[in-house]
Amino acid sequence: MPTLVEWSGTRMLCAMPLFHAAGISIGLYGAIYFRWRIVLPFNTPISVSSVEQILDTNPVESAFLPPSILNDIAKTPASLEKLRRLQFVTTAGGPISRAAGDIINQYTPLKLSMGTTEGQLFATMPPNRNDWPYFCFARETGYSMRPESDGRFELVFERHAKFDLMQPIFVNFPGLDVWHTKDLYSQHPQNPLQWKFESRKDDLIVLSNGEKFQPSDAEDVIAGHPLVRAVCIVGTGMFQAAILVEPTPSAASSHSIDEMLRELWPVVQQCNLRLPSFAQVHRDYIRFVDEPLTRTAKGTLSRPGISQTFKFVIEDIYKQEHQPNQTLQTEVTTLQAIQQVILDAASDYIKPRPVGLNETFIEADFDSLTLLGMKRSIESRLGNNFKFELRHLYECGTLRQLADVIWDLLSQQDRQAGPGKPNRGTDLAPRMRKLLGKYQTQSQRPSPPKRVILTGSTGSVGAYLLDRLYAEDQIDEIWCLNRSQAHDKQVKSASEKGLKFDWGHRVKFLEAHLHLPSFGLADDDYELLLDKVDLIFRKT
C-alpha cells in the first residue's frame, strides 16, 4: 500500500478507538507491518485538550485523529500551532469538513485514509498536498466507479484472480464477485484518476413529495462556521428539510439562540444556492440543540442515532405552529411600514441578495415553499393574530402588490375590531379585481404557443407536465431548464412512470440557474429563447 509505506517508521499518535477497524489497522497492523511506533492516548476520552497534552509531552512525528477532533482543532489556534511540528496528520472513518481540512493543511500535510470493516484499508497513491481531499485508488484493487445521480459515482470492487492479494473483501465474502461499497465520490475536475468522498448512498434524504437530495455538501459548508461544532440536515418523510446544529461550547455559553441564528443564517443562504429549490432550508427550520449530536464510536455523526435521539426535537420543528415572534413584531401605521415588513420577511427566505418591491416572484426565483415561509414570517412580524391566505401571495405578482393587499386586509381587521381604529385603506375586493383583471388581460394570447419553456421538468410533477406538453401537436419545441444536465434523469423518471421518453428533436435540455443573469445560459442559447419562446411553464 503505497501511502502506508510512505509513512513507515514514523512515531504516530493513534487516537482512533482500538475496537474500530481504523484503529486496529493503524494501531496494530501498522505497528507490525510498517514499523510504526504507536503512541496511544491517555486513559481519558479523546478531545482537543488531550491531544494537545500528548503533543506537548511526547515526541510524536505524526498523528491519526478522528475527523471530529480535527474539525475542532481547526477552530483552535493554539492547537493548530502544535501541528507544525508533525510530518503529517491523517484521519479516517468519516469526512472532515473542507474548511477545516484546508486550515489544517496549512500547518501540516493532511492525508486521508479510506477503508471499510469488511475490506480493511484500501490501497491508494498519495495525491499532491493541495489535493488532500482526493483519493487515487491503486488499479490492482480492482476498483471501478459507477455513475449515480448528480454527477457522483459509487465505488465498486470487482473480483480479479490476478489481484487476489489486494482484494481482502473477497476473502471475507468468497461468494461475491462484485462488492458495492455504497460510498459516493466526485471526480477531480482536472485529474480523472482522483476521487473525493462525498457521502453514503444511505445518507440520501427523501422528502414526502418524492424528491431526493444529498445533504453532505451543505453540511460541510455549515460545519465550517466558527460557532458550529457539528450539523445534521434532516427531513426524510417530511415536506422540507431542516437543520440540527450543535454549537461549540464557547458559542453556546456566549451567544443567545437569536444571536447564533443571525450569524449562521448568511452561511445557510449560501448553501441554499447549491441546493435544489425543494431541498433549501428556511430560517424557521434551523434548530440549535442543547445536547451533542449522536456519534459513532469513531466520532462521526450517526444519522440513524440522531433521528432516534432527537426524534421529539425533529417532530417539534415540523408540527410547530408559527407563533408571533415578539422580537420581530413591528407596529405598522403606514403603507411604507408594511412594505418594509415584507422586505424583511422576504430576506429570511430568499437567496442572499437584495430584492426590490417591483421584482416579480418569478424573477426573484420564489418557489411554493419560499412563499409559504414568507407568509409565516409576515404574520409573525405583524402579530395581533393577523393571518392571510396563501392565495393572496399567488395572486400578487410583486412584493409591492402584496403590501397593498395586506394593507387593505389590516384595514378590514381594524374596522371589524370596532370604532377607534384608523382606516388604513380602501376595500380589498376592488383592488383584487383590478389586479386579477390586469393579469388576465396580459395572459390572453391570440394563438396557441409553438415553443415553450418548462422549468423543473425532472420532478415528480414536472415529468407529467412534460408528457402533457409533448402530447400537444401544435407545440413544436419544448425547452426543459433544470439545475443540472437532466436528459438521463428525465428518461429514467419517464420510464418509471410509464410515460413517453423518445422525444426526438422536439424536447431539448439545458442546465440553467434562474437566480443568475441570463439564467446562467450561454449567450446564444439565451438569445434563442428570448427570440423564439412564447410561453413559460414555471414548475416550482
Automatic annotation (TrEMBL):
Keywords recorded for this protein, A-Z: Membrane, NADP, Phosphopantetheine, Phosphoprotein, Transmembrane, Transmembrane helix
Gene3D superfamilies: ACP-like, N-terminal domain of ligase-like, NAD(P)-binding Rossmann-like Domain
Domain (Carrier) ranges: 329-410
Keyword NADP (UniProt): yes
Pfam families associated with the record: AMP-binding (PF00501), AMP-binding_C_3 (PF23562), NAD_binding_4 (PF07993), PP-binding (PF00550)
Entry's transmembrane regions: 12-36
Matching PANTHER family: ENZYME, PUTATIVE (JCVI)-RELATED, PHENYLACETATE-COENZYME A LIGASE
Name this protein carries in UniProt: L-aminoadipate-semialdehyde dehydrogenase
